[in-house]
Amino acid sequence: VKNLCLLSPDQIELGKMLVEMGQSHLFQQWTDPGVEDNKKKAFFAQVAKLNSSYPGGLASYIKNARELLADSKVGRNPYDGFTPSVPTGEVLSFGDDNFIKYEEAGVKEAQNAAFVLVAGGLGERLGYNGIKVALLAEATTGTCFLQLYIESILALQEGSCRLTQGTFQKDIPFVIMTSDDTHTRTLEVLESNSYFGMKPTQVKLLKQEKVACLDDNDARLALDPHNKYQIQTKPHGHGDVHSLLYSSGLLKVWLYAGLRWVLFFQDTNGLLFKAIPASLGVSATKQYQVNSLAVQRKAKEAMGGITRLTHSDGRSVVINVEYNQLDPLLRAAGHPDGDANCETGYSPFPGNINQLILELGPYIEELTKTGGAIKEFVNPKYKDASKTSFKSSTRLECMMQDYPKTLPPTARVGFTVMDKWLAYAPVKNNPEDASKVPKGNPYHSATSGEMAIYRANSLILIKAGVQVEGPVQQVFNGQEVEVWPRITWKPKWGLTFSEIKIKVRQSCSVSQRSTMVLKGRDIFLEDLSLDGALIINCIDGAEVKVGGSIQNKGWLLERINYKDTSSPEELRIRGFKINKLEQLEQTYSEPGKFILKPQC
Ligand code: UGB
């Protein structure tokens, strides 16, 4: 009370709210006025930020925390009373007519979409010193995830205009959710690379704030152990993206601009944009308000399952159920085998890869009802079975994919299952942990993420009639992986399967040891036989026909160990570098038609 003279009326109101919410312990160690006054002002500045960045304010946060902690203490299962069943959705098979139809519909629809990348996670499991979006997706061209995503969005933007014979190209909005851990460096990567060709006005960074930590079941806020005038905070989770978008006002701007879709995706999946056109086509064709991208899932795989949950009281929702909750839920519903594969050899529940497509109109309506808030959870680490005290402070968390939990049963919620080799290869684990993954389980490492790009591109060319020599097994950083030919192309070359520019009159072949880099849009491969390295750089407006037989020493993968600090981190983390022995490289920087048909 003695310190009231230091405070503004707003700060006094916040102080009263804290005391009313049972938080007077925060002031117990305060000194008399005149001592550490600046730290007291800083305390209220932090309280004001915590209050303004949470839907309903800090009082709502404390109230929600008490309710969730009470449920957690008694071990209430959030799925009590719900019966799981397999929801309806679309299962696609790469390259067939159905897939091609959806891809074309998706590219046309892309100009009515906004893209939202959740990139606030620091990636502790990955152990990479940089931010994850700046990590190389593949070392052959040195393209990082952010560059790959931006170039993919620009390719969709151009393709959408072309396929709809649009008179002008609409700029697709791109939002990146950052956090204190990633904001500055994300901006630096964008600015130092001229936004990888995107207009700076097209990109918006929205920074998520951390939330207050909780010391006990009464939701008493935890003080920073090193500063009694600061409340301890931790990340709230990627679910923040919904309240940030809602409070940013961008959703209404997009609606008035005629947009219809918002696509949410994660920071390290180099395959994603191979799956987006068809998935967006499914959303537009099926009029899904929520479309979860999914892949075939093996039972017990560490991947959430997209599940319809129907309550005895009539409530029904289609939601991702984390894998460790799916098995007990199924057993409780009378499935004795729990999470088991069906006759297809896969789980009947599609595997969540946390890339979502939401229809904008209903999304705005829902967020208006909830104020941007979505269902949260709390996961305290109790000291003992009495569950009366915590080992360390906890906090409320939320996940992006829990958005449908608040939707009415009438909402059109579906999913799109894609071949996993085409859609999903996240980079989450450091080499040490990846090398210990049980055999047959995905490594989810920089090594496996890069090899997955080469495999996907090889399989796509095989589907297009190219004879691509199969992989060899090699070990990098303790992970045995398939090494396919190192084939990469700019998104604008092969945005969709039907746009792959290959003509096979006699035959087209690529040997396993080959590297092929197509940096341009109008590069046409025709009866090419490649055994070595071929690099084509060409501007839009140059049309290059490439054929004939190319043989040279090529580019080899040279193993390096992740502990070898003499190599750059972005190479150590994958366990190899590219040794560029010899290549045929051609650059076309003038408009025109060119033929490259060497007989070497
Ligand atoms: N992220 C944020 O932007 N802010 C945050 O506060 C936290 C994360 P992780 P996670 O891919 O298979 C998710 O850590 O959360 C971003 C799904 O929950 O990589 O453990 C972060 O930058 C899970 O159901 O993954 O698991 C990254 O882009 C499953 O789908 C993204 O959120 C899993 O991903 C995901 O953060 C998966």
TrEMBL record:
Which InterPro entries does the UniProt record give?
Nucleotide-diphossugar_trans, UDP-sugar_pyrophosphorylase, UDPGP_fam
Q: Which GO terms describe its biological process?
A: UDP-N-acetylglucosamine biosynthetic process
Q: In which domain of life is the source organism classified? A: Eukaryota
Give cofactor(s), names only: Mn(2+); Mg(2+)
Q: Fetch the Gene3D superfamilies from UniProt.
A: 2.160.10.30, Spore Coat Polysaccharide Biosynthesis Protein SpsA, Chain A (3.90.550.10)
Q: Which GO terms describe its molecular function?
A: UDP-N-acetylglucosamine diphosphorylase activity; UTP-monosaccharide-1-phosphate uridylyltransferase activity
Enumerate the Pfam families for this protein: UDPGP
- Say which enzyme class the record assigns: transferase
Which UniProt keywords are listed?
Nucleotidyltransferase, Transferase
Per the UniProt record, which EC number(s) apply here? 2.7.7.64
Give the catalysed reaction(s), semicolon-separated.
Answer: a monosaccharide 1-phosphate + UTP + H(+) = a UDP-monosaccharide + diphosphate
Tell me the PANTHER family matching this sequence. Answer: UDP- GLUCOSE PYROPHOSPHORYLASE (PTHR11952), UDP-SUGAR PYROPHOSPHORYLASE (PTHR11952:SF9)
The family classification in the record reads:
Belongs to the USP family.
Q: What is this protein called?
A: UTP-monosaccharide-1-phosphate uridylyltransferase
| Organism of derivation | Gossypium tomentosum
